[in-house]
Fold:
Amino acid sequence: MPALSGLMSVMEKAARKAGSKLRRDFSEIEQLQVSMKGPADFVTKADQKAEDTIFRELENARPDWGFLMEETGEIAGKEGKPRFIVDPLDGTSNFLHGIPHFAISIAVQDPKPDGSGWGDLYMGLVYNPITDESFWAERGKGAFLGHKRLRVSARRKLSEALVATGVPFKGHGDIEEWGKIYAAIAPEVAGIRRFGAASLDLAWLAAGRYDGFWESGLSPWDTAAGCLIVREAGGFVTDYRGRSPAIADAQLLAGNDQLHSRLHKLLVGALK
Structure:
């Protein structure tokens, strides 16, 4: 059982602090659903409050590091220092509609040694405030749910695979492309799920709950932590062309070694 490193302890403390506020705010959503104003403004404030809480905690611990955050954008750190990549509320639509499936995602990315941009991910944390589940990984040390070691599923047959995805919606994603991929994959697998929080989709894949995942049009804060957690759990994460960027976001396909290969073959065939 690994002890949390000092930095991971800081990240988890920040996530839990923000998560307790999100839980309180979430309990107000039900009442807001029937109000004339509606809950959208409230959720925007909850999102921002969570990000502010995380930022303060992390900045206090690492004052010279940079940040890339969903709400605030990029904050440059001292040259040569890592950066935090933060999504304070992944699954905003679920939160808005009173669906208890959302998460906080925090990752650490190192700069490239030659200073030409951003390199490998070093740490990742996905925290679900409702279930109090903390999925985390450190590069080279494995992936964990709390103190339990995570491994991707051992399933080899597509016919037994449960695959997650994200579905395009108004203003987001390519519905034509997604439809082609869905038409190729759905008839071959045991089921497809769309739960609405990519960070949790990836964390659940690392835990063996899902066997595969695909989505496009995401942002770095949606997937950074999840990409590392899946890889440290023994899984593969690539774009649709089979390349393995540190953060797959514009296109993302993930699974164990056997199923990733088979899903990739179906996906490529669908997009020819």
Summary: The chain has a mean pLDDT of 94. The chain has seven helices and 13 strands. The radius of gyration is 18 Å. Residues 158-270 form a domain with the D-Maltodextrin-Binding Protein; domain 2 fold (CATH 3.40.190.80).
